[in-house]
Amino acid sequence: MDTLRTFANRIEAAEILAFHLLEYKGRNPLILAIPRGGVPMGKVIAELLDGELDIVLVRKLSAPFNPECAIGAIDETGWVYLDPFSDELAGTDAFLEQEKSRQLNVLRQRRKLYTPHKHTIAPGGRIAIIVDDGLATGATMIAALHTVRARRPAELVCAVPVAAPESLKQVKPLADKVLCLYAPSGFFAVGQFYRDFRQVEDEEVIRIFSRRHNGGNAGTQA
């Protein structure tokens, strides 16, 4: 049995990802982080690749009576991905509509909180690299890839340190390139592959993106 590979923290994982993405350095890549765990990673990658940083807002849809279990995901437009293997967990149509409404409300609140000045960066015609700290079901990454693809980037890249093998298979057809450092057969949860997997708080996300509005390297108005 293979020894379990772990990362010290999200920063170390981001540095390793950036090394494997060096082909994009100097090509003005747009790093799109999935909050909250992907944001400090996206900041590191944007700095190391001389790129810009922004967020892509998506939320998982939770199963009834089990908020940790994802049955799909939703983006800011209301587009929904439902995991085809989660039918027995999804509950009634009424529950699904309620969950979609609840998560859309969270997305609206997060947009106001994280980017109050609403200066997003258009990915059209650019290299867009979507970053998260790992893929469990892959639902939020699928939603993120869908929403960014609709905005016509020149190249769409998915970059994660670790993923469940089955989730990686679902994601690969949706991106032009998928970079995953580790997809072990013994995958249980993203956190098992980090020695420090402390929760990223809203305050940290706000601090990172406030630099963009104040002229930092996190991006410019589009």
UniProtKB/TrEMBL annotation:
Organism the protein comes from: Collimonas arenae
Record's keyword terms, sorted: Glycosyltransferase, Transferase
Ranges for domain Phosphoribosyltransferase: 12-185
Molecular function in Gene Ontology: glycosyltransferase activity
One Pfam match: Pribosyltran
SUPFAM superfamilies hit by this protein: PRTase-like
InterPro entries: PRTase-like, PRTase_dom
Name the record gives this protein: Putative phosphoribosyltransferase
